[in-house]
Amino acid sequence: MRSSGSRRLSRYLPFATAAATFLLLSAVLLVAQVSTTIPIDPLGLARLKDFKAERVSSNDIYVDSNDDSKRPVPGETLVLADLKGPGIVTHIWITVAANEYGWPRLLRFRVYYDGNKTPSVDVPLGDFFAVGHGYERNVDSLMIRNSSDGRSRNSYWPMPFQKSCRITVTNEGSRRVSMFYYQIDWQKHESLPPDIGYFHVFYKQELPAVKGQLYEILNVKGRGHLVGALLNVIQTEPGWFGEGDDLFYIDGSPTPVIEGTGTEDYFNEAWGLRVSNGLFTGVPIAEGRNVGSRISGYRWHLPDPVPFTKSLRFLIEHKGWIQDHNGLVDGFQERYDLWSSVAFWYQEGVNQDLPEPPYGAARLPHGDATQIEVEDNIKDVTTQDGQAIVQRDVFWSKDLLTLRANGPGASINVPFDVAATGYYEIVAQIAHAPDYGNYAVKLDGAPIAPRGQGSGRNREAQIAAYGSEMYVAADHLIGWTDLEKGRHVLTFTCTGKNDAATGYNLGIDDVVLARINDKARITR
After folding, report:
1. Which CATH code of 2.60.40.60, 2.60.120.1390, 3.40.190.10, 3.40.630.30 fits the domain covering 50-196?
2. Is-same-fold flag (50-196; 204-349)?
3. Which CATH superfamily is domain 370-520 in?
4. How does strand 121-124 pair with strand 198-206?
5. Residue 6: predicted pLDDT
6. Which of 117, 175, 378, 518 is 20 to 30 A (C-alpha) from 190?
7. What are phi and psi of 8, to 5 degrees?
8. How far apart are the first and last CA of the chain?
9. Are 276 and 285 in contact (CB under 8 A)?
10. For residues 287 and 480, what is the distance between their CA atoms, to the nearest angstrom?
11. By CB neighbour count within 10 A (0-12 exposed, 13-18 middle, 19+ buried), where does 436 fall?
């Protein structure tokens, strides 16, 4: 019967459309997780099912109400699901409206199986959905799909359990979440095969990577198989971080059993990383090779899982090349960028040995951040060839300082105060809309000069604010620079617009200051 099913599969696949192939592959992967006794064939979806389909959600118990969201305050834990098995979680959908900087890193997502007190999934919410750094970005892969500018998050990782499954989200930020919606689809089974593994997810960070040590994505004991990884890097100096090889030590092997050829190669890319999406690999974030640039990439080991019977160590070198203030390249050498990662795997039983992630703001790139609501200081704002106004509640508790610009050359001067002299990252949270233009940004009247890049590398941050619909608000790196205590001014000047844009306007949600810790001060 198996061989017959295989013949039927080979017969149909050459004629399948891309969409049908995607759907078939999804069904095949799920069937492969559930049972080894069911033949894999293109009629799998047509076979009658012997499980019960169920869902838990944030839906209001009052049918006539449309208020279907939760609003966790700081420190509050939401119980999204408390399921009784045997069963399999097959789909998780979440969307959130929050006005705190980095909230996808501040919300902590956990899954507990079979009454265990130790979570098998313990990870920032955004990173679980394949996007690092607290950003919102679209992802179009087989196991994770994020849409609506990253605001609609979907997971299709199968999560089987024998007795129970408890799923929670904790607000480890300092502001109340405006709206938190969710749906969790699952199957109730009479029984599951005894060889089913439990789905695990582990978050790790080094800010920055440790000198003389490889970055360790996962170190786990037991029997199981790795099925995916997310890697996030913030460059602390110019150049290219991604020459490090991925290394897998399996079952206590003294040397790597699997060795890679470079970081971008691990993501099945070449000659660098650029924004892309694919069924098994993708790069939701790729901001370039300057100081402060962020990169986030995923790889799902579905065609090529990495099995282990005793242990698995998954490491990667943090090596690359350095670009000095004259633009000259110095490499190949160890770099000390800011690293974080997520490992996805199935294993026998529940892992008890991995450390908890840092709490709340300690997961932000620099351990903390000051969020400045610039619209509150509109009396100190000045403009040229345009008008500054405040728009309230543009998107669920997010307010905008808006420049109604007359055209290219229009500008807005936004003051902000620095509490203490230091080395800072400056981020502007910018809205995107159909009538928004392109802008260059200066600090105190001059391009920003990141430390270590010299005057020849000074640059104006560039913002392309057009969007097919209103989105509030995307993080735009302005730069890393030294700031004296006191008042400073960011100047946003219109340089033009996208051909599809209907205007030249600009909307600023916040300016975010994060003081860069001493370990990330790279002065080669």
Report:
1. 2.60.120.1390
2. yes
3. Galactose-binding domain-like (2.60.120.260)
4. parallel
5. 35
6. 117
7. -65, -40
8. 65
9. no
10. 14
11. buried
- Length of the chain equals 524
Which is nearest to 206 in space by CA: 196, 197, 216, 198? 216
The pair of structure tokens assigned to 185 is 């689809």
Token readout for 439 is 């802008």
Reduce the DSSP state of residue 28 to 3 states and report it. helix
At 205, the amino acid letter reads: Q
At the topology level, CATH places domain 204-349 in Jelly Rolls (2.60.120)
The two three-digit tokens of residue 140, written as one number: 């179009």
Contacts 24+ apart (CB under 8 A), 30-36: 30/90, 30/158, 33/88, 33/158, 33/160, 33/196, 34/88, 34/158, 34/160, 34/192, 34/193, 34/196, 35/193, 36/193, 36/195
DSSP label at 252? T
- CA dihedral sign, ordered 443, 446, 448, 454: negative
Domain ranges of the chain: 2-46, 50-196, 204-349, 370-520
pLDDT of residue 500: 97
The pTM of this model reads 0.89
Tokens of 479: 């730069």
* Positions of the chain with pLDDT lower than 70, given as ranges: 1-43, 63, 65, 325-327, 449-458, 521-524
Buried b / exposed e over 311-334, threshold 16 CB at 10 Å, is bbbbbbbbbbbbbbeeeeeeeeee
CB 203 within 8 A of CB 342: yes
